Amino acid sequence: MDRPLFVYGTLRPDRAPPALAAVTRSLRRLEPARVRGRLYDLGDHPGAVLDERAGWIEGELVALGPASPPLAWFDAYEGYEPDRGSGPKPDDLGRSLFRREQTVATAASGRLVSCWVYVCVRPPAGARRIADGIWRPGVV
Known about the structure:
By secondary structure, this protein is mainly beta. It has helices at residues 21-25, 71-78; strands at 5-7, 27-41, 46-50, 56-64, 98-107, 112-120, 128-129.
């Protein structure tokens, strides 16, 4: 993987559900970071919408480690199929919730880092916005 992954939900090593714990432990933690956007509570996971005019989404920059699955595994976990292009086709609207995009995160050190992030394909209708941009599992 040529660039780190910005994680803000179930892929964060300290917030992963038990079924993902081994995968997230295999990630190399780089540093806390944040990106501009809006974060939504989608039940058992959050969803991000990038927006330069919005607040911050808090998360972490990670890199794949030697024991990590390939980036394609993370794409499959998020329901993203890169061969389909940048977004779902009209007949695929119900199929994919997320896609992987390149963005720039502001790391805790203050440096700007080009990274991948999984974002919602479309704004989540009826989902509650997480105003402080920090997803906390099990908190409603």
